[in-house]
Amino acid sequence: MSRTALLLGASGLIGGYCLELLLADPDYTQVTILVRQPLPTSHPKLTQRIVNFDRLNEAADAFQVQDVFCCLGTTIKTAGSQEAFRKVDFNYPTESVRLALQQGATQFLLVSSLGADAKSSVFYSRTKGEVERAVAASDLCSVQIFRPSLLLGQRTEVRTGERIAETVSRAISFLLLGPLRKYRPIEARAVAAAMIVIAKQQPTGIHIYESDRIAQIAAQTESQ
Ligand SMILES: NC(=O)c1ccc[n+]([C@@H]2O[C@H](COP(=O)([O-])OP(=O)(O)OC[C@H]3O[C@@H](n4cnc5c(N)ncnc54)[C@H](OP(=O)(O)O)[C@@H]3O)[C@@H](O)[C@H]2O)c1
What we know:
There is one protein chain. Helix content is 41%, strand content 20%. The chain is an alpha/beta fold. It has one domain: 3-Layer(aba) Sandwich (Rossmann fold). Strands 3-2-1-4-5-6-9 form a seven-stranded parallel β-sheet, sandwiched between helices. Strands 7-8 form a two-stranded parallel sheet. Helix 1 crosses helix 6 and helix 3 packs parallel to helix 4. Bound molecules: NADP nicotinamide-adenine-dinucleotide phosphate (NAP). NADP nicotinamide-adenine-dinucleotide phosphate binds next to helix 1 and helix 3.
C-alpha cells in the first residue's frame, strides 16, 4: 500500500535519518517536510515547505497525509530559556497534532524521551510527559510515542554534556540488562528505522515504545 508522510524536524539527527529512510522506502510515494531553512536535498518524492513554526496553521494543508512524523526538539541551552524550549518541545508538537486531526491524517508518531513523566520535578522530563499526554489525548486513530535513551550519531553542534554521558553509558552499556536495557544509548538511525516500521504497521490506539523496544524493532529491519 502506498503511503504519504509529513516530517517535522527533518534537519535534526533523528529527523535527518527519517528523511533519508522515507525517501528510500518504496512504500512511501510522497514525503513533505516543514523546515525553517531549505535543506540541500532534492528527490522526486520530496516537497519542502519553508514555514514559521509560530504560524504552522499557514501550512495546514501539508497535514493532509497519512503519517505525521514529529522529530522536533531543542535544548534549554540552544533555546535560551525554559519558555523557548517548551515552545519547540510542547507547543509545536501539540499544534501539529491539532492540524493533523483537522486535516485528516490518521497517524502521529512523536519522538519523546526516556523518562518522560508529566509529574516529574525535572523540567525536561515533565515537558516531555506533558507533550505525550497532550498528543495521546487527541482523537487520532493511531498515536505512536517513542522514548529513546541518549542518542548516538554525528552532530555538527557540540553538546558536551551528551558527549560525556555517551562515553560513560557506552562503557557501562554491557551492565545494563533486563529492565535496565532501556538506559543503553541508542543510534538515532535506529530510532528513525523503528518509527518507519511501526508507521507501516499502524497499530490503532496509543502505543509507547521504550528505548530497548525501539532497538529491538530496528534490529529486525537490519536482519531482513
Ligand atoms: N539528544 C538526545 O540524546 C535525546 C535523547 C532522547 C530524546 N531526545 C529527543 O529526541 C527528539 C529529536 O532529537 P534530535 O537530537 O534528533 O534533535 P535535533 O538534532 O536537535 O533536531 C531538532 C529539530 O527540531 C528543529 N527545531 C529546533 N528548534 C526549532 C524551532 N524554534 N522552530 C522550528 N524547528 C525547530 C530543528 O530544526 P532547525 O535545524 O531549523 O533548528 C531540527 O530539525 C527531541 O525531541 C529530543 O528532545 C533526544
